Amino acid sequence: QVQLQESGPGLVKPSQTLSLSCTVSGGSINANHWSWIRQPPGKGLEWMGFISSGGISYYSPSLKSRASISRDTSKNQFTLQLNSVTPEDTAVYYCTRQENFFPVSWGQGTQVTVSS
After folding, report:
1. 10 Å Cβ neighbour count for 56?
2. pLDDT tens-digit map of 6-50
3. Pair 94, 6: CB distance under 8 Å
């Protein structure tokens, strides 16, 4: 059974870069697609992007090129970087395993707050 665990700072200052990692166990990072999804307070889930089993990344147009998803196969991890954050990027961030563009396995989520 695939398990995912997010890690990263819980507080980021405005204009800085948010960086989160997701460690995968029970499955190979090379054999699946992996995505990031977030949920701002009081709002619905927002799909941010994914990295394919072949290492190609795709992003939501709404992020306007601020996001970058990469992977480290030696650590079985993938990461999210989000540049130039604002308080609107405050959310619970989830890493997921994705099949046919649907999340099928989820991490527990990590709260990130953007504040000075």
Report:
1. 10
2. 999 999 999 999 999 999 999 999 999 999 999 999 999 999 999
3. yes
pLDDT digits (tens, 9 = 90+) for 66-108: 999 999 999 999 999 999 999 999 999 999 999 988 999 999 9
The total number of residues written for the chain in this structure? 116
User: Percentage helix, strand, coil, to 5, in the chain?
Assistant: 5, 55, 40
Task: Give Cβ neighbours of residue 87 (< 8 Å, ≥ 6 apart).
Answer: 14, 114, 115
Q: φ and ψ at 58, to 5 degrees?
A: -135, 145
Position of tokens 């405005």?
14
Report the candidate in 102, 68, 94, 88 with the shortest Cα–Cα distance to residue 59: 68
